[in-house]
Amino acid sequence: MDTAQRYRAFATREAHGHSAIYEELAGRVADDEELIALIDRLPVPKRQPNLLLATVRFLGGPVTGHRAFRSWVISHWDQVSATMRQRRTQTNEPGRCATLLPLLASLPQPLALIEVGASAGLCLYPDRFQYRYDDRPPLGPSASPVSLTCRTTGHMPLPERLPTVVWRAGVDLDPLDVRDADDMRWLECLVWPEQRDRLDRLRNAARIAQAEPPHLVRGDLNQVLPELVSRVPRGATPVVFHSAVLVYLPSEARSVFTETMRRMPGHWITNEGPHILPTVEARLPRPAPPDRAVFALALDEQPLAFTGPHGQWVDWF
Ligand SMILES: C[S@@+](CC[C@H](N)C(=O)[O-])C[C@H]1O[C@@H](n2cnc3c(N)ncnc32)[C@H](O)[C@@H]1O
Predict the structure, then answer these.
(1) What domain of life does the UniProt record list for this protein's source (predicted)?
(2) Ligand 1 atom 19: residue of nearest CA
């Protein structure tokens, strides 16, 4: 997929229905040869639409309409490209815990959670959030500042109680620190402009993490994971999980990770694009919808559901 196609796909498959302004801006970038030529000067992983759009907001540029956006990007390209090279797409979406929860609750308790590609680690607190599945009674602490709503289809096993988490840790190439103002602002810029609920959720989840910061290790998941798993306290079930991470790995690194995971004790929860893990893709009971972005949720490489990329829905198989 070339850069123009990438921006068009982002507009129609990801932003459509979720952010009218991002749909417009990404769609117009796709048709703009001058902007595409600038973006193509960056290494391929840095050409991501989300990264450009978040960068412009982070630097105080306008994301109100194409004309202002394009002239600002062109006149500030040195700054824009430097920030895109320096930062990464690290959208940390605690809403994804709503799709992970049925699996976490089904495993032998208590749990030791290890998230790879954890960003700021906000998905490491599934036991601190409240959950509302469809019109069922809420689950979890009523005083939680984070309330996650999730639509379900199929026969999702509704958890009766929250998991018991006795240990939590994460690894990231560049962990973000919820106590650092610049890192928080970057996280906020990664939330799409119209999504006020997601922004509130991010800030509220960050309050939980600020009160009890997660143990996050800087490094590549393939390098760091075995040592982290070896530190899981006795008696706890190790659960390695990740969402929206393996897409950033070259396929060889994905294979190394898969082999490592097969040797690890405990369980492995993946919530990634349906074509990212070959074994999960091969076992899907039906093809993923072609017209919108979805994730495939799997436990130990056994697919169990399609999920909304931000945790907004679960379609259980
Ligand atoms: C889109 S974010 C998702 C964050 C989090 N998993 C969530 O669902 O909210 C992807 C994260 O993976 C991290 N990442 C990408 N490649 C990695 C690698 N090889 N090792 C460790 N972390 C990596 C990025 O730095 C980024 O923070």
Answers:
(1) Bacteria
(2) 220
